[in-house]
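can u pls check wat happens w/ SAJ
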Amino acid sequence: MQDSKFEIRNSKLIVVIGMGYVGIPCAVLLADVPGHKVIGVQRRSERSGWKIDVLNQGKSPFEGHEPGLAELIARVVEKGTFRVTEDIAVCRDADVILIDVQTPTDSGRVPQYLSLREVSAGVGQYMRKGTLVVIESTVAPGTTQNIVQPILEETSGMKAGKDFYLGFSYERVMPGKLLEYMVDFPRVVGGIDAKSTELAVELYRTIVKREITATDVLTAELAKTVENAYRDVNIAFANEIALVCESLGVDAYEMRELINARPDRHMHLPGAGVGGHCLPKDTWLLRFGVKEYGTRDVDTAMITLARRINDAMPDHMVRLVEEALAEAGREVKGSRAAVLGIAYLEDSDDIRNTPAQPLINTLRARGASVIAHDPFVWGYEGEELTRDLDEALRGADCLALVTKHQMYFELDLEHVKGLIRTPVIVDGRNVFSAKACREAGFVYRGIGKGS
Ligand code: SAJ
């Protein structure tokens, strides 16, 4: 379907495939660059198809705070330099194609590349000679050259490096700071050869203000998964130390401040769990890449153990709920829990891999009824979810906080006391003062909050 809206002849056409947390900010930043025309490609899936129309109306599909993004989307749609379609055939006119589709792992920790494979085949079917293709999705190291490149070559009949260019460059997005992190963070760019790398660096130079480091495609892929595995291990360390602090009666957050007073230390924060689209899967992508493409197996014991520690934190929240209810003379069974915060990250609407889910599942399995509250999240299938905090707290036997949305810091304890049936607070993110809660008559437990 030839697009009449863009005069392709005299402008650089960039196609961005996958209108998610990475694809949308990247597409609209590029669309705001003079000389760029950008077409977002999004399949009309159940979960995300609605974004096509929302974006083409110049609106942001994100609920959480995303400074500058809504205005930028409106501006580039108004300018006519950005639009979204479900028709991947627009790749036929593209100078650059960015692939930003989800790369989840399954319950066996194996990457699910169905979308990546389908999109790569679609790109190969339409792309023309001289196109630059960049994978931005996080993949197991070795994927670009061992999975994507063969599909592109087979479906296009062309040769990578000779007829088209291919590279990998990872984003460092953070919900709530999507634009800021994309523009103000350094960028790693890896091509399959010097020309691919050069063209990709030239592209990112138009939107990234910080340094852009050129490397090879495998190093770039590995750097992405290692960067997040590194963060996951640091969080796991903080979580293990939080359990130590609870056992010894020390406040882990106070102790962390003492340690981080050293400028060369950065102890992470313990909490109710590790969610998101990155950390819960990137370690498994790293491990898969080593097993699949490594010359010898490596026992990635530490990063695997870190995943186990972080994934056990929702169970620890259940333990704290049970302890606190017992102190208040109640059991989990037959109690009503108000879970505050469903998004995996504060002041975001992103619920992917949220630690709230295992917490809710276990409480329910133990016979509690659960109502969830989140100021940013709309649909949450299968769960009783409200945006009315009073409704969530009214008649509850326990307030269990999972996500430190800003509004929770402003909660008035007396107001909560007047609504809740049993005055119990379990704090998964050090939002409340243990002292203030106890003085207000609450039973208080918190991750890392030894008393
Ligand atoms: N968390 C902790 N303790 C911490 C930090 C985070 O429990 O000290 C939890 C958060 O509550 C959240 C999860 O871990 O549930 C992930 O938090 P995150 O801050 O890592 O957020 P992500 O996963 O959206 O973003 C990370 C980012 N890594 C950072 O260093 C901030 C981002 O740079 C990456 O680009 C992103 O993964 C990604 O896209 O890979």
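Residues 171-175, 228, 231, 235, 268-269, 271, 274-276, 278-279, 344-345 surround SAJ (CB under 6 Å).
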